[in-house]
Amino acid sequence: MSIELREPPDLAKGQGGIVARRAVVRWAVRLFRREWRQQLLVLSLLTVAVAATIWGASVITNAPLANPNWVKYGTAAALVKLPGSDPHLAADIASIEHRWGPADVIENQAIAAGTTQPVYLRAEDPRGHFDGPLVSLVSGSYPVGPGQVALTSQVASLYGTQVGGRWRAAGVTWRVTGIVEDPSQLVDEFALVTPGQVRNPSQVTMLLGRAAARLANAGLTLPGVPAATLAAPNENVGGLSQATLVLVAEVLGLAFIGLVSVASFSVMAQRRLRALGMLSAIGATDRNLRLVMISGGLVVGVAAALAGTAAGLAAWFAYVPTLQQATGHAVDAASLPWWAFGTGIGFAIATSVLASRRPAKTMAAVPVVTALSGRPAPQKAAHRSAVPGVIAFALGLACLAFTGGLAGAPGGEGRPPLFLVGGLVGVIAGIVLLAPLALSVLTAGSGQRMPVAIRIALRDLVRYRARSGAALAAATFAVFLATVTGLVGSERTANPLQPSGPNLSSSQLIVVAGRSPSPGMMIPLTSAEEASLSRRLNRLALSLHARHAVPMEHAAGLFEANVPPNDNFTGSFEVATPQLLATYGIKASQIAPHTDILTSRPGLAGLSHLEIIWQSGGNESDNNSQPASSRPCKLSADCLASPVMQTVNALPTGTSAPNTLITEYAVRKYHPQTHLDGWLIQAPAPLTAAQIRAARRVTLAYQAPLEIAAGGTNVGEITAVGTALGILIALGVLAACIGLIRSEAGRDLRTLTATGASPSTRRTITAATAAGIGLLGAVLGLAFAVVAYMAWAHADLAALFGDVPLTDLLILVAGLPLIAAAGGWLFAGREPPAISRQPIE
Amino acid sequence: MTVLELRGVSKTYGQEPAAVCALGGVDLSVRAGEMVAVMGPSGSGKSTLLTIAGSLEEPTSGEVLVCGLALAGMPRARKARLRRRAIGFVFQDFNLLPGLTAAENAALPLELDGVAVPKARAAALTALDSLGVADRAARFPDQLSGGERQRVAIARAVVGDRRLLLADEPSGALDSVNADEVMRLLHEACQRGVAAVVVTHDAQLAAWADRVVFLRDGRVSGQTAQPAGPESLLSPEGTR
Fold first, then answer.
1. Which of A37, A391, A785, B2 has the largest count of CB atoms under 10 Å?
2. Pick the residue with more confidence: A14 or A182?
3. Residue A364's closest chain B neighbor by CA?
C-alpha cells in the first residue's frame, strides 16, 4: 500500500451474501462445539422435552387397544354364547355354523387355580376367522392333536410346568407344546387345546360375521336357538381419539421446548453479547448478528432432537413391559406413531429456531458500544403484552370449556380435537405473555425492611426482566403441566363411590377365606382349615417382610341411596380392627369418637344419603340415638343412615382396598354379625413373581382364591410422578436461567464483594433469586392450571379441591421455591472474578 | 487526503438534569498515512471520540466524515458496510472471536463483505505475515499470548483496503515490550497509507504518533504540531 488519493469506498451494494452467512454460521457451530458443556443444561432440558414427547406419543398410541371390542369379540361382528348346560349344545352349534357361519367356536371349561381370576381349559382353533386378537403364540407351538396343550405363562408358572413338560387337569394328563397368550387381555389365564378336547364345557362362545350382527343390532335373537345369547360390539367408542391425545402431548411438549428455548437462548445471547458487539464493530450487519443466534438455535435444536429421539425411544422400549402390565394387553413395541415423531422432531427444531429469533432480534438491536461493554440490553415496557395475554388466555379457556372435559361435550363430535388443541395453545400463549408481568409483584417484596441481599435479588429480577421473564414463564409452565396432570388424574377418580385404579397395589395380596373348587362357587373353610391357612399365611407374610397376615372381617355393606346398583359403592368394606389400623400406622387416638366409617377416598365423607347395610343381626343398643323414622333408611334394624365418617389419609389411596373401613365403635354399637373375609398381606416392597408364585402354592393347597394387583394405573402414582417431574423440570429451567440473571449482575456482585459482602450474602442473593422465580412460578402455574381445568371440566372450586390431592399441590407451591433456594444457596458461594471485564476469548 | 474529519462533534449522555457531556465541540481531522494519538485523563471523552469516529455511536451534534462520507443519517446497514470496507478497530482486550482461528478472525471482515473464502484467507495470511504471526494462523485465540492476540487483532483491523484504524488502548493489556511492538506495527500500517487514531494513557507510546491530541472534559485542550518525542510530552512547552 502507499499513501495516495483513493476514492471513497463504494457503499452502494453488498451485504456479504452467502460467504458472510457461511462465516457467521461457521462461527455459531464452532461456538456450540466449544461451549457445549456450558449449554449442557439447556441441551438436557430440550433433550428431555423431546424425549418426553416421543415417549408420551408412543404411550398414548399404544396404551389403549387399537379396538377395545377385541377383548371380547376379536374381529368378529357378533358373538353368541351358549351355556354348557344346553341339552342340544352340539346341535345348536352346528345349526348356528350352518346358518350364520363362518364361525369360530370357543369352548371353555373352568378349572380351579387358586386365584380370583378363573382359569379355563379352552378348546379353540388359533387360526380361526375372527380370533386373531384373542390368542397368539409366545413360544413353542400350538397343540395339534389330542393330549396336547399350550398354556399361558401364568398357568405354566402356577403349576410349575414348561414347554415339553406334562400338565394334569380335567382328569387328563396333557403334554405342553407351547406358551400362548390373549394379546388383548393378558390377565386371561387359559390352557389351549384343540377343538373337541373339552369334554364338559361350562360355556361356549361363537364368533360370527356381519350377517348375525344385523340381527343383534336389531335387538333380535337367533331364530331356532333359544339357549343362545346374541351380542354385537359397540361401534361408537367414545372419548378422545389417540390422534387427538398425541397432538395434545405434542402441543404441550413443544410449548415447553419453546419456553425453555427462549429462556436458554436469552441466556446464551447475553453471554455472547460482547462477542456480538465485536462482530458488529468489524462490520457485521444486523442480519448477520441474528443469523449467529438463529444458527445456534438450529444446532441446539438438531442436537436435542436427535438425542431426545434416541432417549425417548430407549425409554419407550424399556417401558413396554410395564405398560403391558398396566394396560393388561400386549403392546407391539414397534407400533410407533412415526408421523408424530416426524412432526415432533420437525416442530422441535423449528421451535428451537423460532425461539432463538427473539433474543437474536433483541441482541441485534443493542447499540454496539453497549454490547462491547457487556451491559445488558435495555428492558422493554412490560405492559405491552398484558392485553394480548389476557385475550389469548380467555380464548383458550373458552375453547377448553367447549370440549366438555374427559368425556367430551354432549353432541360435540368433532369439537374436542379442534377446541382442545386450540384451547391449550391459547392458554399456553396466555401463560407466556402474562407470567412475566407478575415480576412486578417482586418489587413490592423488595421494600426497605428486607435484608439487603434479598432486596438486591428481587430488584435485579425486575431489572433484568427479559431473562427472568422467560425463566418465570418456563417455570410457570412446568408447574402448570404438573398440576394439570394431577387434576386430570383426579378427574378419573372424582367419583368417590367408584374410584378408578388397580384393585391392589403391587405390594399387597389378599387371600379369600373360602374354598373355590370352580369359578363362582365358594365354600366356607372349616375352623381347622382357617386356623391352618392363617398359620401358613403368617409364615408367608414373614418371608415377604410383612409383620403378619392381617385378618379382614366383614360386617356390613355400604351404599348410597337413590343411586343405581351399577353406580354404587365398589370396593371392600372391612372392620377397622386394631391389627389392620396398625398395618397403616393409624393410632386409635387419631379416630374421632362416634365415628362409624374411616375412609381415604376423597369426597366420600361429603356424600349424603350413605347407608350402612348390616350383614345380619345389626341392632342399635343406644336408645338415645336419632329415631329411625326420620332417616331415609327405612329398615332401621338392618341399616344405618348418614353414618359419621372421618377421612384418614394414612389408609391406602389409589387402589380399591382397603380404603374404607367400618370402625369397631360402630360394630360394638350396632352388633352386626362379623365373619372372616380373608387375609391381607401388606409387604414393604412390590412383590416379585417368585413371591407371588410362593403365595399361590400356599393358597392352591386350600383352593382359596388369591387376589393380587391386576393392572390399572395408580392415579396416586401418576400425580406423584407428575408433581416430581414438574418440580424437576422447573428446577432445571431455574438452574439454566438463574446463572445468567446473576451473571448479568456480576459487576454488582464484585462491588458487593469489594465492600465486604461475605459468601453468605452472595449465597443469599442467588437463593433469593431462585426462590423468587420458583415461588412465583409455582403460584402462577397452579392458578393457571386450576382456572384452565375448571373451564375444561366444568367444575366448581369446592368440588375441585374435594378431589385433588392437596399434599401434591402444597409440595409444588412450597417445595419448588424451597428446593430452588437451597440449590441456589449451595451452588453460589464462588468468589466472583477479580477482573472487572473478562476478555471474550 | 483527509480520511477522518470531525466538525464540532458533541456527545451528551442522559437527559437534564443528569446529563453528562462526554464531548463538546471537538474538531479533528486525520489524513491518510497519519497517526494521531489521543491522550487525556479518565472520563475526558477519548473512547467516546473513537466510537463516534468509528460509526459505533451517533454524535449529539456536529458532523463526522469518513473517507469523505458523512455518517449523519447513514442507515445501520450502510454503516456496517463502511466499517467492513474502510474502518478497522483495535481494542485493549483484543476481542478476538472465540471459536475462530487467528486466520479466520483476520479474514472475518472480508468474509462478512462477501469476499470468497480462499481470497479472504490469502489476504488474512498476508496481513498476519506482515505482523509476524503467520505461523500462528491455525491457532485459536486462547492458544495465543497477549502480544500475539493483539497482532491478530491489528491484522483483522488492517486487512483489505482499510483506510482508517481506530485503536482504543491497544497496548493496555500488554507488557512494555509488547506494547512498544504493537505501536510500531500500527505505525507501519500508517506508513502504508492508513490513517490511525490511537487512544492511550502512555506518553511514551504516544510518541510513536505523528500528532498527539489532548482531551480534557470532552474538549481538545491541546495538540502537538509535529511528530514529538516522549520527552517533549513531559514538558508544558511541548504542547500548544
1. A785
2. A182
3. B76
Question: What is the length of chain B?
Answer: 240
Q: How many CB atoms lie within 10 A of CB A734?
A: 29
CA distance A331 to A354: 36
Q: With contacts defined as CB-CB under 8 Å, which chain A residues touch B4?
A: none
Q: Which of A423-437, A522-536, A635-649, B141-155 has the lowest mean pLDDT?
A: A635-649
DSSP A64-90: S-SSTTHHHHTT-SEEEEEETT-TTHH
Is pLDDT of A630 > 50? Answer: no
Q: Which residue shows C-alpha cell 433483541?
A: A362
Q: Which residues of B touch A20 (CB under 8 A)?
A: 111-114
**B81 in reach of chain A (CB within 8 A):** yes
What count of CB pairs under 8 Å joins A to B? Answer: 151
Task: Classify strands A119-123 and A189-193 as parallel, antiparallel or unpaired.
Answer: parallel
Q: Do B114 and A16 touch (CB under 8 A)?
A: yes
**What residue of A is the nearest CA neighbor of B1?**
A5
In terms of Cα–Cα distance, which of B47, B55, B51, B116 is closest to B82?
B55
Nearest-angstrom CA–CA distance, B106 and A130: 75
Residue A707 CA to residue A389 CA, distance in Å, equals: 53
Rounded to the nearest angstrom, the minimum Cα separation between A255 and chain B is 32
Contact of A328 with A186, CB cutoff 8 Å = yes
From chain A, the residues in CB contact with B95 under 8 A are 274-275, 278, 281, 372, 839-841
Q: Are A682 and A505 in contact (CB under 8 A)?
A: no
Contacts of B117 in chain A (CB under 8 A): 19, 22-23
What backbone phi and psi angles, to 5 degrees, belong to A261? -65, -45
Instruction: List, in sequence order, every residue forming a beta bridge with A229; answer none if it has no partner.
Output: A81
pLDDT tens-digit series, residues B152-201: 988 898 888 888 999 988 887 778 777 888 888 888 888 888 899 999 88
DSSP letters, B96-140, are PPTTS-HHHHHHHHHHHTT--HHHHHHHHHHHHHHTT-GGGTTS-
Judged by CB atoms closer than 8 Å, whether chains meet at A281 and B33 is answered as no
- Work out the end-to-end distance of chain A between its first and last CA atoms, rounded to an integer number of angstroms: 31
Residues forming beta bridges with residue A106, ordered by sequence position: A205
Output the CA angle A235-A241-A247, nearest 5 degrees. Answer: 165
Q: Which neighbouring-strand residues pair with A206?
A: A80, A105
Quick check: helix, strand or coil at residue A150? Answer: strand
Q: Which of A226, A201, A141, A207 is nearest to A176 (CA)?
A: A141
Q: Is 90 exceeded by the pLDDT of residue B64? A: yes
**Does residue A705 contact residue A116 with C-beta atoms inside 8 Å?**
yes
**What's the pTM?**
0.65
Contact A769, A467 (CB under 8 A): no
Cell of A556: 356390613
Task: Find out whether the peptide bond into A805 is cis, omega within 30 degrees of 0.
Answer: no
Mean pLDDT of B138-146: 88
Cα–Cα distance for residue pair A608/A585, rounded to 1 Å: 29
Cβ of B56 under 8 Å from any chain A Cβ? yes
A571: which 3 cell numbers?
Answer: 370396593
Taking the CA of residue B191 and the nearest CA in chain A, the distance in Å comes to 7
CB A505 within 8 A of CB A714: yes
Is A20–B114 a contact, with Cβ atoms under 8 angstroms apart?
A: yes
For β-strands A508-512 and A556-560, DSSP reports them as unpaired
Residue matched to cell numbers 462477501: B114
Residue A782 · residue A479 · CB < 8 Å: yes
Report pLDDT digits (tens) over A307-352. 989 998 998 888 888 777 767 777 788 878 888 788 878 877 888 8
- Its ipTM equals 0.79
Task: Report the residue count for chain A.
Answer: 841
Gap from B237 CA to chain A (nearest CA, Å): 31
